[in-house]
Amino acid sequence: MLASFFEKPFDPNRRLQHQIQERLIEAILAGVWPLHEPLPATRVFAARFKVSRNTISLVYERLAADGYLMPVNRRGYFINERALREQLTIRQDAKLKDSLPTEARPLDLEAKLRYRFTGQSHITKPNDWRRFEFPFVYGQTLADKTSVTRWRDCVRLAGTAQHAPTWISDLVDRDDPMLIDQIIRRVLPQRGFRAAPENILVTIGAQNAVYLAASLFCSPGSRVDIEDPGYVDARNIFLSLGASLKAHGVDTNGMRVTGALSGAEVVYVTPGHQSPTNVTMSMERRLALLAAADTHDFIIIEDDYEHELNFVGAQRPALKSFDRSDRVIHIGSLSKPLFPGLRLGFVAASSAIIEEMRVLRRLMYRHPPAQDQRAMALFLAEGHYDAHIRRQRKDLSGKWRRVFQEVDRLLPMCAVTQTTGGSAVWLQLPADLPARDLQAEAARNGVLVEAGDIHFLDQAPPKNCIRLGFGAVSLDQITPGLERLAQVITRMLAARRPGPPSRRPAVAIA
Protein backbone atom coordinates (compact mmCIF):
# COMPACT_ATOMS: atom_id res chain seq x y z
CA MET A 1 0.00 0.00 0.00
CA LEU A 2 2.87 2.37 0.75
CA ALA A 3 4.12 1.92 -2.81
CA SER A 4 0.87 3.32 -4.21
CA PHE A 5 1.78 6.74 -2.86
CA PHE A 6 4.98 6.72 -4.90
CA GLU A 7 3.64 5.55 -8.26
CA LYS A 8 3.33 9.07 -9.62
CA PRO A 9 6.65 10.39 -11.02
CA PHE A 10 8.43 13.05 -9.00
CA ASP A 11 8.30 16.65 -10.24
CA PRO A 12 11.83 17.52 -11.48
CA ASN A 13 11.19 21.22 -10.71
CA ARG A 14 10.74 20.58 -6.96
CA ARG A 15 13.14 19.32 -4.31
CA LEU A 16 12.97 15.54 -4.07
CA GLN A 17 13.24 15.54 -0.28
CA HIS A 18 10.10 17.68 0.08
CA GLN A 19 8.10 15.52 -2.30
CA ILE A 20 9.01 12.30 -0.49
CA GLN A 21 8.15 13.89 2.85
CA GLU A 22 4.73 15.05 1.57
CA ARG A 23 3.89 11.59 0.24
CA LEU A 24 4.99 9.84 3.40
CA ILE A 25 2.78 12.14 5.49
CA GLU A 26 -0.17 11.33 3.22
CA ALA A 27 0.52 7.61 3.63
CA ILE A 28 0.84 7.89 7.43
CA LEU A 29 -2.44 9.78 7.77
CA ALA A 30 -4.14 7.31 5.45
CA GLY A 31 -3.21 4.51 7.89
CA VAL A 32 -1.66 2.25 5.26
CA TRP A 33 1.32 1.18 7.40
CA PRO A 34 0.98 -1.07 10.49
CA LEU A 35 1.78 0.73 13.73
CA HIS A 36 3.75 -2.22 15.10
CA GLU A 37 6.12 -2.41 12.13
CA PRO A 38 9.02 -0.07 11.43
CA LEU A 39 9.05 1.83 8.16
CA PRO A 40 11.34 0.38 5.50
CA ALA A 41 15.01 0.84 6.28
CA THR A 42 16.61 3.78 4.52
CA ARG A 43 18.66 1.44 2.32
CA VAL A 44 15.58 -0.57 1.32
CA PHE A 45 13.45 2.55 0.74
CA ALA A 46 16.18 4.18 -1.36
CA ALA A 47 16.67 1.08 -3.50
CA ARG A 48 12.92 0.52 -3.96
CA PHE A 49 12.20 4.05 -5.20
CA LYS A 50 15.61 4.76 -6.74
CA VAL A 51 16.56 7.75 -4.61
CA SER A 52 19.52 8.61 -2.41
CA ARG A 53 19.75 6.88 0.97
CA ASN A 54 20.85 10.19 2.53
CA THR A 55 17.66 11.80 1.24
CA ILE A 56 15.52 9.16 2.96
CA SER A 57 17.50 9.55 6.18
CA LEU A 58 16.86 13.30 6.15
CA VAL A 59 13.15 12.74 5.53
CA TYR A 60 12.84 10.27 8.41
CA GLU A 61 14.72 12.60 10.76
CA ARG A 62 12.51 15.55 9.86
CA LEU A 63 9.30 13.54 10.26
CA ALA A 64 10.52 12.38 13.66
CA ALA A 65 11.26 15.97 14.66
CA ASP A 66 7.75 16.96 13.56
CA GLY A 67 6.17 14.16 15.61
CA TYR A 68 4.98 11.89 12.78
CA LEU A 69 7.59 9.19 13.49
CA MET A 70 9.33 7.81 16.56
CA PRO A 71 12.92 6.47 16.32
CA VAL A 72 13.48 3.23 18.24
CA ASN A 73 17.07 2.24 18.90
CA ARG A 74 18.26 -0.67 16.71
CA ARG A 75 14.78 -1.15 15.26
CA GLY A 76 14.15 1.89 13.06
CA TYR A 77 11.38 4.47 12.71
CA PHE A 78 7.80 3.73 13.78
CA ILE A 79 4.64 5.77 13.17
CA ASN A 80 3.79 7.93 16.17
CA GLU A 81 0.49 6.40 17.29
CA ARG A 82 -0.55 9.46 19.30
CA ALA A 83 -0.18 11.83 16.35
CA LEU A 84 -2.06 9.43 14.08
CA ARG A 85 -4.85 8.98 16.63
CA GLU A 86 -5.33 12.76 16.89
CA GLN A 87 -5.74 13.00 13.13
CA LEU A 88 -8.14 10.05 12.99
CA THR A 89 -10.25 11.56 15.80
CA ILE A 90 -10.60 14.78 13.82
CA ARG A 91 -11.65 12.84 10.75
CA GLN A 92 -14.17 10.78 12.69
CA ASP A 93 -15.69 13.93 14.20
CA ALA A 94 -15.95 15.42 10.74
CA LYS A 95 -18.03 12.45 9.65
CA LEU A 96 -20.74 13.51 12.11
CA LYS A 97 -22.03 15.80 9.39
CA ASP A 98 -23.55 12.68 7.85
CA SER A 99 -25.98 12.60 10.77
CA LEU A 100 -27.38 16.05 9.96
CA PRO A 101 -30.80 16.27 8.27
CA THR A 102 -30.58 15.88 4.52
CA GLU A 103 -33.05 18.72 4.03
CA ALA A 104 -31.90 22.22 4.93
CA ARG A 105 -33.28 25.67 4.33
CA PRO A 106 -31.29 27.20 1.48
CA LEU A 107 -29.63 30.56 2.04
CA ASP A 108 -31.11 33.46 0.10
CA LEU A 109 -27.77 35.02 -0.73
CA GLU A 110 -29.18 37.90 -2.76
CA ALA A 111 -31.26 39.02 0.20
CA LYS A 112 -28.24 38.94 2.53
CA LEU A 113 -25.54 40.54 0.42
CA ARG A 114 -24.90 44.24 1.00
CA TYR A 115 -23.22 44.62 -2.37
CA ARG A 116 -22.59 42.25 -5.27
CA PHE A 117 -18.90 42.55 -6.04
CA THR A 118 -19.27 39.86 -8.70
CA GLY A 119 -21.61 42.19 -10.55
CA GLN A 120 -18.76 44.59 -11.29
CA SER A 121 -16.82 44.64 -14.54
CA HIS A 122 -13.26 43.52 -13.90
CA ILE A 123 -10.12 43.28 -15.98
CA THR A 124 -9.65 39.63 -16.89
CA LYS A 125 -6.35 38.09 -17.91
CA PRO A 126 -5.62 34.45 -18.66
CA ASN A 127 -3.83 32.66 -15.84
CA ASP A 128 -1.82 30.76 -18.43
CA TRP A 129 -0.50 33.91 -20.14
CA ARG A 130 2.98 32.36 -20.26
CA ARG A 131 1.85 29.80 -22.82
CA PHE A 132 1.29 32.55 -25.40
CA GLU A 133 4.20 33.07 -27.74
CA PHE A 134 3.85 36.85 -27.51
CA PRO A 135 2.19 37.84 -24.19
CA PHE A 136 1.69 41.60 -24.56
CA VAL A 137 -0.11 41.66 -21.22
CA TYR A 138 0.24 44.52 -18.77
CA GLY A 139 1.31 43.99 -15.17
CA GLN A 140 3.50 40.94 -15.73
CA THR A 141 7.26 40.83 -16.05
CA LEU A 142 10.14 38.58 -16.97
CA ALA A 143 12.20 37.28 -14.07
CA ASP A 144 15.28 39.28 -13.17
CA LYS A 145 17.53 36.40 -12.09
CA THR A 146 19.91 38.67 -10.22
CA SER A 147 17.11 40.22 -8.19
CA VAL A 148 15.56 36.83 -7.51
CA THR A 149 18.89 35.67 -6.08
CA ARG A 150 19.31 38.84 -4.03
CA TRP A 151 15.75 38.57 -2.71
CA ARG A 152 16.30 34.95 -1.71
CA ASP A 153 19.42 36.04 0.17
CA CYS A 154 17.45 38.73 2.01
CA VAL A 155 14.66 36.31 2.92
CA ARG A 156 17.26 33.90 4.26
CA LEU A 157 18.93 36.69 6.23
CA ALA A 158 15.55 37.83 7.60
CA GLY A 159 15.09 34.32 8.95
CA THR A 160 18.32 34.28 10.96
CA ALA A 161 18.52 34.65 14.73
CA GLN A 162 19.60 38.26 14.27
CA HIS A 163 16.39 39.33 12.52
CA ALA A 164 13.80 36.72 13.54
CA PRO A 165 12.82 38.57 16.75
CA THR A 166 11.51 41.42 14.57
CA TRP A 167 8.84 39.28 12.91
CA ILE A 168 8.03 36.27 15.09
CA SER A 169 5.86 38.44 17.35
CA ASP A 170 2.58 40.11 16.39
CA LEU A 171 3.25 43.75 15.53
CA VAL A 172 -0.44 44.47 16.24
CA ASP A 173 -0.89 47.64 14.17
CA ARG A 174 2.75 48.71 13.73
CA ASP A 175 5.21 48.18 10.88
CA ASP A 176 8.83 47.08 10.72
CA PRO A 177 10.79 50.20 11.79
CA MET A 178 13.68 49.27 9.51
CA LEU A 179 11.39 49.20 6.47
CA ILE A 180 9.81 52.52 7.43
CA ASP A 181 13.29 54.01 7.75
CA GLN A 182 14.35 52.65 4.36
CA ILE A 183 11.23 54.01 2.65
CA ILE A 184 11.91 57.43 4.16
CA ARG A 185 15.60 57.47 3.26
CA ARG A 186 15.73 55.53 0.00
CA VAL A 187 12.34 55.73 -1.72
CA LEU A 188 10.72 59.06 -0.91
CA PRO A 189 13.67 61.28 -1.94
CA GLN A 190 13.36 59.83 -5.44
CA ARG A 191 9.79 61.15 -5.43
CA GLY A 192 10.78 64.62 -4.31
CA PHE A 193 9.67 64.72 -0.70
CA ARG A 194 10.48 63.52 2.80
CA ALA A 195 8.34 62.32 5.69
CA ALA A 196 8.51 61.27 9.31
CA PRO A 197 7.80 57.70 10.52
CA GLU A 198 4.32 58.74 11.65
CA ASN A 199 3.52 59.72 8.06
CA ILE A 200 4.12 56.24 6.60
CA LEU A 201 1.99 53.08 6.57
CA VAL A 202 2.96 49.79 4.90
CA THR A 203 0.22 48.02 2.93
CA ILE A 204 -0.31 44.80 1.01
CA GLY A 205 0.33 46.42 -2.34
CA ALA A 206 -0.71 49.82 -3.70
CA GLN A 207 -4.26 48.67 -4.41
CA ASN A 208 -4.80 47.85 -0.75
CA ALA A 209 -3.69 51.40 0.02
CA VAL A 210 -6.30 52.75 -2.41
CA TYR A 211 -8.96 50.71 -0.61
CA LEU A 212 -7.90 52.02 2.79
CA ALA A 213 -7.94 55.63 1.59
CA ALA A 214 -11.30 55.21 -0.14
CA SER A 215 -12.80 53.61 2.96
CA LEU A 216 -11.87 56.65 5.04
CA PHE A 217 -13.25 59.29 2.72
CA CYS A 218 -16.01 57.65 0.66
CA SER A 219 -19.56 56.86 1.70
CA PRO A 220 -22.87 56.49 -0.15
CA GLY A 221 -23.36 59.65 -2.18
CA SER A 222 -19.75 60.91 -1.95
CA ARG A 223 -18.52 62.37 -5.20
CA VAL A 224 -15.23 60.94 -6.45
CA ASP A 225 -13.68 62.36 -9.62
CA ILE A 226 -11.57 59.98 -11.69
CA GLU A 227 -9.61 59.80 -14.93
CA ASP A 228 -11.37 58.48 -18.02
CA PRO A 229 -10.18 56.05 -19.19
CA GLY A 230 -8.92 55.03 -15.78
CA TYR A 231 -7.90 52.26 -13.42
CA VAL A 232 -10.75 49.77 -13.27
CA ASP A 233 -10.12 48.33 -9.81
CA ALA A 234 -9.95 51.78 -8.20
CA ARG A 235 -13.22 52.66 -9.89
CA ASN A 236 -14.79 49.48 -8.54
CA ILE A 237 -13.55 50.24 -5.04
CA PHE A 238 -15.24 53.64 -5.08
CA LEU A 239 -18.46 52.21 -6.50
CA SER A 240 -18.57 49.44 -3.87
CA LEU A 241 -18.52 52.13 -1.18
CA GLY A 242 -21.48 53.89 -2.76
CA ALA A 243 -19.59 56.80 -4.30
CA SER A 244 -20.89 58.79 -7.25
CA LEU A 245 -18.24 59.01 -9.99
CA LYS A 246 -17.48 61.92 -12.31
CA ALA A 247 -15.10 61.29 -15.20
CA HIS A 248 -12.47 63.67 -16.57
CA GLY A 249 -10.81 63.15 -19.93
CA VAL A 250 -7.13 62.38 -20.42
CA ASP A 251 -4.71 63.68 -23.03
CA THR A 252 -0.94 63.48 -23.46
CA ASN A 253 -0.47 65.70 -20.38
CA GLY A 254 -2.62 63.55 -18.11
CA MET A 255 -6.03 64.27 -16.63
CA ARG A 256 -7.57 67.54 -17.78
CA VAL A 257 -7.89 69.98 -14.87
CA THR A 258 -10.91 72.26 -15.31
CA GLY A 259 -13.63 73.97 -13.33
CA ALA A 260 -15.59 70.73 -13.60
CA LEU A 261 -13.70 69.57 -10.50
CA SER A 262 -15.88 71.87 -8.43
CA GLY A 263 -18.00 69.78 -6.07
CA ALA A 264 -15.56 66.85 -5.89
CA GLU A 265 -14.83 65.41 -2.46
CA VAL A 266 -12.05 63.06 -3.58
CA VAL A 267 -10.01 63.10 -6.81
CA TYR A 268 -8.15 59.92 -7.75
CA VAL A 269 -5.24 60.26 -10.21
CA THR A 270 -2.33 58.20 -11.51
CA PRO A 271 0.07 61.01 -12.46
CA GLY A 272 3.31 59.04 -12.80
CA HIS A 273 1.94 56.73 -15.48
CA GLN A 274 -1.73 57.20 -16.13
CA SER A 275 -3.63 53.94 -16.09
CA PRO A 276 -4.21 52.74 -18.77
CA THR A 277 -2.76 55.23 -21.32
CA ASN A 278 0.64 55.43 -19.57
CA VAL A 279 1.02 59.17 -20.13
CA THR A 280 2.77 61.22 -17.44
CA MET A 281 1.00 64.25 -15.98
CA SER A 282 2.77 67.51 -16.85
CA MET A 283 4.07 69.85 -14.17
CA GLU A 284 1.51 72.47 -15.20
CA ARG A 285 -1.33 69.98 -14.66
CA ARG A 286 0.08 68.89 -11.31
CA LEU A 287 0.25 72.42 -10.00
CA ALA A 288 -3.18 73.21 -11.41
CA LEU A 289 -4.66 70.15 -9.70
CA LEU A 290 -3.18 71.16 -6.34
CA ALA A 291 -4.54 74.68 -6.75
CA ALA A 292 -7.96 73.24 -7.62
CA ALA A 293 -7.84 71.07 -4.48
CA ASP A 294 -7.37 74.17 -2.34
CA THR A 295 -10.03 76.11 -4.23
CA HIS A 296 -12.68 73.38 -4.22
CA ASP A 297 -11.63 71.72 -0.93
CA PHE A 298 -11.11 68.13 -2.06
CA ILE A 299 -8.66 65.35 -1.18
CA ILE A 300 -6.27 63.93 -3.78
CA ILE A 301 -5.42 60.22 -3.83
CA GLU A 302 -2.16 60.05 -5.78
CA ASP A 303 -1.57 56.49 -6.97
CA ASP A 304 2.08 56.64 -8.06
CA TYR A 305 2.50 52.90 -8.49
CA GLU A 306 5.21 53.09 -11.17
CA HIS A 307 7.09 56.29 -10.41
CA GLU A 308 10.57 55.05 -11.28
CA LEU A 309 9.94 54.06 -14.90
CA ASN A 310 10.24 57.23 -16.98
CA PHE A 311 12.82 57.05 -19.75
CA VAL A 312 12.57 60.51 -21.34
CA GLY A 313 13.73 63.43 -19.21
CA ALA A 314 14.02 63.55 -15.43
CA GLN A 315 11.60 61.89 -13.04
CA ARG A 316 8.87 64.36 -12.13
CA PRO A 317 8.32 65.04 -8.43
CA ALA A 318 5.19 63.58 -6.93
CA LEU A 319 2.13 65.69 -6.22
CA LYS A 320 2.86 65.08 -2.55
CA SER A 321 6.11 67.04 -2.86
CA PHE A 322 4.08 70.23 -3.49
CA ASP A 323 1.41 69.51 -0.87
CA ARG A 324 1.19 72.32 1.69
CA SER A 325 -2.22 71.55 3.18
CA ASP A 326 -2.05 67.76 3.75
CA ARG A 327 -4.62 67.15 1.00
CA VAL A 328 -2.55 64.57 -0.89
CA ILE A 329 -2.54 60.89 0.04
CA HIS A 330 0.49 59.50 -1.76
CA ILE A 331 0.46 55.79 -2.61
CA GLY A 332 3.44 53.83 -3.85
CA SER A 333 4.29 50.23 -4.68
CA LEU A 334 7.45 48.46 -3.57
CA SER A 335 6.61 45.24 -5.36
CA LYS A 336 5.26 46.27 -8.78
CA PRO A 337 8.67 47.42 -10.06
CA LEU A 338 10.29 44.37 -8.42
CA PHE A 339 8.06 41.26 -8.24
CA PRO A 340 4.34 42.00 -8.82
CA GLY A 341 3.34 38.96 -6.79
CA LEU A 342 5.15 40.15 -3.67
CA ARG A 343 2.38 42.65 -2.77
CA LEU A 344 4.03 45.35 -0.67
CA GLY A 345 3.17 49.03 -0.88
CA PHE A 346 3.02 52.13 1.28
CA VAL A 347 1.06 55.29 1.99
CA ALA A 348 2.55 58.71 2.76
CA ALA A 349 0.09 61.19 4.27
CA SER A 350 -0.53 63.39 7.28
CA SER A 351 -0.07 61.71 10.65
CA ALA A 352 -3.79 62.07 11.37
CA ILE A 353 -4.75 60.26 8.15
CA ILE A 354 -2.12 57.56 8.69
CA GLU A 355 -3.37 56.91 12.22
CA GLU A 356 -6.92 56.44 10.95
CA MET A 357 -5.65 54.10 8.25
CA ARG A 358 -3.61 52.19 10.80
CA VAL A 359 -6.68 51.44 12.91
CA LEU A 360 -8.71 50.48 9.83
CA ARG A 361 -5.91 48.20 8.63
CA ARG A 362 -5.81 46.59 12.07
CA LEU A 363 -9.45 45.57 11.66
CA MET A 364 -8.68 44.04 8.26
CA TYR A 365 -5.38 42.17 8.68
CA ARG A 366 -3.43 43.98 11.44
CA HIS A 367 -0.25 44.42 9.38
CA PRO A 368 1.48 42.98 6.29
CA PRO A 369 3.61 39.89 6.99
CA ALA A 370 6.46 41.08 9.16
CA GLN A 371 9.05 38.73 7.66
CA ASP A 372 8.32 40.11 4.19
CA GLN A 373 8.71 43.61 5.58
CA ARG A 374 12.11 42.79 7.07
CA ALA A 375 13.27 41.09 3.87
CA MET A 376 12.25 44.18 1.87
CA ALA A 377 14.02 46.43 4.37
CA LEU A 378 17.22 44.42 3.88
CA PHE A 379 16.75 44.44 0.11
CA LEU A 380 16.56 48.24 0.20
CA ALA A 381 19.36 48.72 2.73
CA GLU A 382 21.83 46.59 0.78
CA GLY A 383 21.21 48.57 -2.41
CA HIS A 384 19.55 45.72 -4.30
CA TYR A 385 16.35 47.68 -4.95
CA ASP A 386 18.18 50.60 -6.57
CA ALA A 387 20.31 48.21 -8.62
CA HIS A 388 17.17 46.39 -9.75
CA ILE A 389 15.52 49.65 -10.80
CA ARG A 390 18.60 50.57 -12.85
CA ARG A 391 18.53 47.21 -14.64
CA GLN A 392 14.80 47.42 -15.14
CA ARG A 393 14.95 50.93 -16.55
CA LYS A 394 17.64 49.86 -18.99
CA ASP A 395 15.66 46.78 -20.05
CA LEU A 396 12.28 48.48 -20.33
CA SER A 397 13.63 51.59 -22.04
CA GLY A 398 15.04 49.39 -24.81
CA LYS A 399 11.69 47.64 -25.18
CA TRP A 400 9.83 50.96 -25.04
CA ARG A 401 11.85 52.37 -27.91
CA ARG A 402 11.51 49.18 -29.92
CA VAL A 403 7.73 49.11 -29.45
CA PHE A 404 7.25 52.68 -30.67
CA GLN A 405 9.61 52.07 -33.58
CA GLU A 406 7.84 48.90 -34.69
CA VAL A 407 4.31 50.17 -34.09
CA ASP A 408 5.10 53.11 -36.37
CA ARG A 409 6.52 50.76 -39.02
CA LEU A 410 4.13 47.82 -38.78
CA LEU A 411 0.85 49.34 -37.61
CA PRO A 412 0.34 52.51 -39.67
CA MET A 413 -3.41 51.99 -39.43
CA CYS A 414 -3.30 52.47 -35.64
CA ALA A 415 -2.85 55.62 -33.55
CA VAL A 416 -0.41 55.27 -30.65
CA THR A 417 -0.40 57.42 -27.53
CA GLN A 418 2.99 59.04 -26.96
CA THR A 419 4.48 58.46 -23.51
CA THR A 420 7.71 59.16 -21.63
CA GLY A 421 8.11 55.66 -20.21
CA GLY A 422 6.33 52.82 -18.48
CA SER A 423 5.74 49.23 -19.49
CA ALA A 424 2.79 49.52 -21.88
CA VAL A 425 1.41 51.53 -24.79
CA TRP A 426 -2.15 52.51 -25.65
CA LEU A 427 -3.32 52.00 -29.23
CA GLN A 428 -6.40 53.15 -31.11
CA LEU A 429 -7.43 50.71 -33.83
CA PRO A 430 -9.36 51.66 -36.97
CA ALA A 431 -12.92 52.53 -36.02
CA ASP A 432 -14.38 49.47 -37.76
CA LEU A 433 -12.11 46.98 -35.96
CA PRO A 434 -13.54 46.05 -32.51
CA ALA A 435 -10.78 45.45 -29.97
CA ARG A 436 -12.59 42.45 -28.50
CA ASP A 437 -12.63 40.74 -31.88
CA LEU A 438 -8.94 41.49 -32.37
CA GLN A 439 -8.14 40.21 -28.87
CA ALA A 440 -9.79 36.86 -29.60
CA GLU A 441 -8.25 36.45 -33.05
CA ALA A 442 -4.79 37.52 -31.91
CA ALA A 443 -4.92 35.01 -29.06
CA ARG A 444 -5.66 32.24 -31.57
CA ASN A 445 -2.44 33.31 -33.31
CA GLY A 446 -0.31 33.30 -30.16
CA VAL A 447 -0.47 37.05 -29.45
CA LEU A 448 -2.02 38.22 -26.18
CA VAL A 449 -3.37 41.80 -26.14
CA GLU A 450 -5.89 43.57 -23.90
CA ALA A 451 -9.07 45.28 -25.08
CA GLY A 452 -9.38 48.78 -23.61
CA ASP A 453 -13.13 49.38 -23.46
CA ILE A 454 -13.37 48.24 -19.83
CA HIS A 455 -11.26 51.21 -18.70
CA PHE A 456 -13.90 53.76 -19.69
CA LEU A 457 -16.64 54.88 -17.30
CA ASP A 458 -19.08 55.55 -20.13
CA GLN A 459 -21.69 52.84 -20.71
CA ALA A 460 -20.97 53.14 -24.44
CA PRO A 461 -17.14 53.31 -24.46
CA PRO A 462 -14.90 53.35 -27.53
CA LYS A 463 -14.60 49.79 -28.80
CA ASN A 464 -11.36 50.14 -30.73
CA CYS A 465 -8.65 50.67 -28.06
CA ILE A 466 -6.09 48.15 -26.88
CA ARG A 467 -3.25 48.15 -24.37
CA LEU A 468 0.03 46.44 -25.19
CA GLY A 469 2.13 45.58 -22.16
CA PHE A 470 5.72 44.68 -22.98
CA GLY A 471 7.15 43.84 -19.55
CA ALA A 472 6.65 40.10 -20.06
CA VAL A 473 8.02 40.04 -23.64
CA SER A 474 11.76 39.86 -24.32
CA LEU A 475 13.32 42.53 -26.51
CA ASP A 476 13.98 40.14 -29.39
CA GLN A 477 10.36 38.99 -29.37
CA ILE A 478 8.84 42.44 -29.77
CA THR A 479 9.38 42.75 -33.52
CA PRO A 480 8.11 39.25 -34.46
CA GLY A 481 5.23 39.68 -32.02
CA LEU A 482 4.10 42.96 -33.55
CA GLU A 483 4.61 41.50 -37.03
CA ARG A 484 2.22 38.70 -36.08
CA LEU A 485 -0.26 41.22 -34.68
CA ALA A 486 -0.01 43.33 -37.83
CA GLN A 487 -0.79 40.29 -39.95
CA VAL A 488 -3.88 39.55 -37.89
CA ILE A 489 -5.08 43.17 -38.11
CA THR A 490 -4.47 43.28 -41.86
CA ARG A 491 -6.46 40.09 -42.43
CA MET A 492 -9.32 41.29 -40.28
CA LEU A 493 -9.48 44.67 -42.02
CA ALA A 494 -9.34 43.01 -45.44
CA ALA A 495 -12.34 40.91 -44.48
CA ARG A 496 -14.26 44.03 -43.45
CA ARG A 497 -13.43 46.51 -46.21
CA PRO A 498 -11.63 46.73 -49.54
CA GLY A 499 -8.39 48.57 -50.12
CA PRO A 500 -5.18 48.99 -48.11
CA PRO A 501 -5.20 50.35 -44.54
CA SER A 502 -4.45 54.06 -44.14
CA ARG A 503 -2.03 55.69 -41.71
CA ARG A 504 -3.59 57.63 -38.84
CA PRO A 505 -2.07 60.44 -36.77
CA ALA A 506 -1.04 59.69 -33.19
CA VAL A 507 -3.56 60.72 -30.54
CA ALA A 508 -3.72 60.46 -26.77
CA ILE A 509 -6.88 58.39 -26.36
CA ALA A 510 -10.00 57.47 -28.24
Automatic annotation (TrEMBL):
Residues 14-82 form the HTH gntR-type domain. Signal peptide: none annotated. InterPro entries: Aminotransferase_I/II_large, HTH_trans_reg/aminotransferase, PyrdxlP-dep_Trfase, PyrdxlP-dep_Trfase_major, Tscrpt_reg_HTH_GntR, WH-like_DNA-bd_sf, WH_DNA-bd_sf. It comes from the Bacteria. Keywords: DNA-binding, Pyridoxal phosphate, Transcription, Transcription regulation. The keyword Flavoprotein does not apply. SMART domains: HTH_GNTR. GO terms for molecular function: DNA binding; DNA-binding transcription factor activity; pyridoxal phosphate binding. In the C-terminal section; belongs to the class-I pyridoxal-phosphate-dependent aminotransferase family. This is Transcriptional regulator, GntR family.
